[in-house]
Design brief:
Length: about 300
């Protein structure tokens, strides 16, 4: 916990980055783009659910847009130095499984490495939230819905055939069914979706890896959101249960009495991060929404 606190208070920031990146974007953006501060984007291409990507020198620059459940359209960009991204991958490969909680890798090592570089995105999102006068609960929802809008990609630690074989040994057919579902074919689908294999050793990608290609399943997303929200100065935890990972937020859900876990006297409500459904006036899942017969006692807070 000490390492985490030091990281969040001493995250990387470059005071000269504004001028540098503005100059780089002016030299690399499409001819029909327009300029707004840092950003030079093509408004006809950047619509909710889409992104634009450029490589400037040794840095990946990505713009994307999403629509939240209130119908607001958000646009933002992020820059990721490729050498730092490679460091993040190597750090992820050092992740080990917890010796005291089942289904819980040691996520903290990835958070400690990536948080300083997530801070830049966190600051931009915080400024956007302030401009719209969002409170902390509304800000957290906006950030969560940013990730919920990104299509799901299954991530596992071994090759596709090996994962199917291990699944069968456990008397399960989830992996095989997923691999053969037409919606997920080809498994190498771009820009997201499909299945990401050989994410060794724990079947989870680092926050920076997720930010770089938007590929991620449950715990890749929860660890990313945890890191981002904490860098924004907002409360969050990661909660793992039977074969799944969910984010925990301390904001009261619309319906009282929903399942929660308590950490240091604070109730944290479950948040599903892998999907966003819109139909018949409904948009969610929202904070606290869980399946029927959900058993909170089977879950543990694994990152706080």
């Amino acid at each position: 916990m000490v390492v985490l606190c030091l990281c969040f208070t001493g995250c990387y920031q470059d005071p000269d980055a504004d001028i540098f990146w503005k100059e780089q974007f002016e030299n690399s953006a499409p001819s029909n783009a327009y300029s707004s501060g840092y950003q030079r984007i093509s408004p006809s291409n950047l619509v909710p659910g889409k992104f634009i990507e450029r490589q400037v020198l040794d840095t990946l620059v990505r713009w994307w847009s999403w629509k939240d459940c209130n119908g607001r359209v958000w646009k933002i960009w992020v820059d990721i130095p490729l050498p730092i991204l490679e460091e993040s991958r190597k750090t992820r490969q050092e992740v080990t499984l917890s010796s005291w909680i089942r289904n819980s890798p040691n996520y903290r090592i990835m958070v400690a490495h990536d948080a300083p570089y997530i801070r830049v995105l966190a600051n931009r999102l915080r400024r956007m939230a302030l401009a719209k006068e969002l409170n902390v609960s509304e800000t957290s929802r906006m950030v969560v819905q940013m990730v919920q809008n990104i299509p799901y990609t299954l991530v596992h630690p071994h090759s596709h055939p090996e994962m199917e074989s291990r699944d069968i040994q456990k008397n399960s057919h989830f992996i095989r069914k997923y691999h053969r579902n037409p919606r997920h074919i080809p498994l190498s689908k771009e820009p997201f979706g499909g299945c990401y294999a050989n994410a060794d050793p724990a079947g989870v990608l680092s926050p920076l890896e997720f930010l770089a290609d938007f590929k991620g399943d449950c715990d890749t997303r929860t660890v990313f959101l945890y890191t981002l929200l904490r860098c924004m100065g907002l409360k969050a935890v990661v909660m793992n249960g039977p074969g799944h990972s969910m984010l925990g937020l301390p904001y009261a859900p619309k319906r009282p009495g929903l399942p929660n876990l308590v950490h240091q006297g604070q109730k944290y409500y479950f948040v599903e991060t892998t999907v966003l459904k819109r139909n018949s006036g409904y948009c969610g899942p929202e904070i606290g929404e869980v399946p029927r017969n959900f058993r909170a006692e089977q879950w543990r807070i694994v990152l706080h």
